[in-house]
Design a protein that fits this description.
312 residues, two-stranded antiparallel sheet, 11 strands, 21% strand, alpha/beta, seven-stranded mixed beta sheet
Length: 312
Amino acid sequence: MGKLHRKTLETGVEGLGDSYFTESLALSTPPDDPDPLDSNLLLRELQWLLQDATGDVGRSQNPDLVPLRADLGDLYGLWRERVLERRPFQYVVGCEHWRDLVLWVGEGVLIPRPETEVVVDLVREVVIGRSGRGDGEEVWADLGTGSGAIAVGMGGVVGERGRVVATDLSEVAVKVARFNVERYALKDKVQIRQGSWFEPLEDVKGKLTGLVSNPPYIPSRNLPGLQAEVGRYEPKLALDGGESGMDHLIHLCEGSVSYLKPGGFFAFETNGDEQSEFLVDFMVSKLENSFRDVKAVADFAGIKRFVTGFRS
């Protein structure tokens, strides 16, 4: 266990003076780097790292020193991974703050993005709208659950009659998702199953109250140009949407016809305006009479990122 001067936490990274951290930060953005790091983001991340390292430890006898849960040299090693190797900050600290949750994440699992939080909001709106209708169990599905972020979030909004079944092909993702479910004491509400898309859901085929997914939607040709933190570390399985980026989205749309019950809700995340508009047109014209009220929904930034609707 190490100790850190209290001024560092009060003033931020500037309080570190000529320390290893500041030197590492200075080396992080070469002038000719085609994909430079955002220095303001790094400052915030470093502050979060130091604050996290001071949590849940006893008091120091010296009021000017704050005890650390780890040696300062170990923290520097983690920071070098972040800055010099471009390892995502969430993988460095092993968690991501998402909605009101703190989720375990690690390599092999897609880091949940803030915009995806909208999916849980959409589900909550539908649950509220259905309040008082029927008295049977309502089954919701999250396909390609990754860290389990959406599934855990849904577990808190589907109500007393609702339960969530989440699937993922990745063994690593299933392990991480199950941990996050247990962390929030949702084992009786959320079940994680391993398998590709709809394959683990035969027992609820045609019975789903709702179906959501944030599938891979990046065109294969665009993968080499991704930000270093994404392209080098996050799983290709969770990113690659095929030649046009639409392979998995089309599969989800077609499968929803069989797995949603009449009136069942769906919400799919896309890469943005062009994909969402294509998907709306596909579901209305190619899957004629299968769905109603199909529309594109904007994210926090005003980008039409989600496609929602109901089974006819």
